[in-house]
Each structure stands twice: as C-alpha cells, then as structure tokens.
Input
Amino acid sequence: MNRHPLEELFRGSRKTLRVLRVLLTAREPLTKYAIENRAAVYDAGPLLDRLARIGVVKVVEGRPRRYSLDPSSPLVGAVEKLMRETGYL
Output
C-alpha cells in the first residue's frame, strides 16, 4: 500500500487516518477485526477507545462490539471534508 501525502503530513497518525477512512466508507457499524482488516492495521482497540472518548466514534454494544462514526460530531465532518479534498477518501 503506497503512502498518501496526508499520511506523510500526519506521520505517526497513519493508523488513525486509515481507521477513519474505513469508518467513513462503511455502510454499517464494523467490528474491530473488520476495521483492522480493511485498514491494514493491527491493535486498533486502544485507538477506537480514544476516538470514542472524544466523541468521534460510537460504540454499538453487543457481541461482538461494533463501531461507527458519530455523524453529529463536527470533527467527523471536518475530517471527511479534508480527506475528500485531498483525495484520501
């Protein structure tokens, strides 16, 4: 997978960018495993917990737990706009 300039700009945040990109394109809540698989990252649990704490991600309780973006979060809209305008999404 080639690095996108956005990943270079936010070096050290590649996992976050990739997870957000997966969640922005998901049509339904995804499990942690599905997110890791689609984003080509590992150990996304702590990241998903952090994104939930700041209100970017909603946790759908159950077995297994699933995750989706919170469309009411202003951060989600701003990140989506940035990713679309730079061709990352």
User: Anything to note?
Assistant: DSSP finds five helices and three strands in the chain. The first helix runs from residue 5 to 9. Residues 57 and 70 are 5 Å apart (CA to CA).
